[in-house]
Write a structure and sequence with these properties.
Helix content: 10-25%
Radius of gyration: 30 Å
Number of domains: 4
Number of strands: 26
Number of helices: 13
Strand content: 25-35%
Strand order of the largest sheet: 5-4-1-2-3-7-6
Largest sheet: 7 strands, antiparallel
CATH class of the largest domain: Mainly Beta
CATH architecture of the largest domain: Beta Barrel
Shape: globular
Distance between the termini: 86 Å
Amino acid sequence: MALFSFSKGRRFGALAGVVLALAFSGSVQGYAAERTTPQDATQVKLSFAPVVKQVAPAVVNVYAQRRVRERVASPFDSDPFFRRFFGGNSPFGAPRTRERVKSSLGSGVIVSKDGTIITNHHVIEGAQDVRVVLSDKREFEAKVLLKDERTDLAILKIDGEGADLPMVEFADSDGLEVGDLVLAIGNPFGVGQTVTQGIVSAVARTQVGVSDYQFFIQTDAAINPGNSGGALVDVDGKLVGINTAIFSRSGGSNGIGFAIPGNMAKIVATAAGHGDVVRRPWVGAKLQPVSQDIAASLGMDRPNGVMVTRVLENSPAQEAGLKVGDLITAVAGEQVSDPNSFGYRLVTQELGSDVAFAVLRDGEALTLSVHMRVAPESVPRDRRELKGTSPFAGSVVMNLSPAVAEELRMGDETAGVVVAEVLESSRAAYVGFRRGDIVLEVNGESVDSAKQLAKLSKRKIRTWHIKFRREGRDISTTLRL
């Protein structure tokens, strides 16, 4: 049953209106007094156009070409008889192949007057020819200075001498907050330079899976294919991120886009000035996320931070006094909530610096100073490509050290002989070896070095008993060649 009939409700509404008018007349008058008409054209035409004019010239189109060989369709493909006995290949010889040029299109951002450009690694991956076209139609050949698959970033360089190149300055992406206005600029679908506007939806997305360092700015500014490598800028026209990925089932924008934080991009761009690899800080500790049960056992009202489960000898973690069971809650004053956010906070620290780790140990809050240095190559890697007729033929093996483990993304594995690469169509690929496998034994003999494994692999025998470790699990297998 309704609380009021229509007529009674109307009378009550009128009475309430009078009361409210009397009670708040002062506030209403004050509000009315603040209203003013626009004083000039600028107030009428509030726009992001000045920001776009400042930034857009420095956002470029990146055209990458790579040559691939592909199988030529055979006239026997449609014949069931030949398809059954020859697998679709011609019975008169090996299948024919031809070389084809594949092109990809993306975006990039000029971040230095000397022609340094940031783009995504996946935009130029495998490319033999990279060209850059500016918004004013100037075209340049680009040299790839650095490719970093782990961050999905690449650094290009064009000859900017005398070219008066535009550029975008970096902002401190850690200063972004949810709700901040941002602009995404790039070349979606190859239609030409496009600007979209939105807000920051999240600042620390760690379950995206686009790169090793899963720590992304999420925005609802429309990002589409072709935007990869483009600029995400704030209202001051400064670079806060590199547009990288979208969440989409259709291929178009659903209002969920991800950008690599500008602070990460700046680290990679700076590294390109010192060589062709990114040198990253190494702590020497194995970490695990904090579950609800672990948090409850520690007297915490919610999961937070990362727990230390192993500390390597002679590592910065050991030297700083970190212990198994410690809970790291912040790095350099920035909160960490899981191993991904810890990895991002760590990798954006300056090598050679001492960084404060906020630690919770047995209920006591501590601050430990951890020195930032690269992972050491404790033993020479002794890279060897194995040949011959053994199961290892076509693999590249190295002695494992913290440095090699860091490069191969192997966590806390620091000793042994590791398969660093498996060549395509090789015997090692055929029997199933993978990058990151650690060879432990061959025919009952422990493997201690790449040199020893190379010697063992030269034996002319048909039966091989091999023990290796894959993703922390020891596997034994027997192969007959």
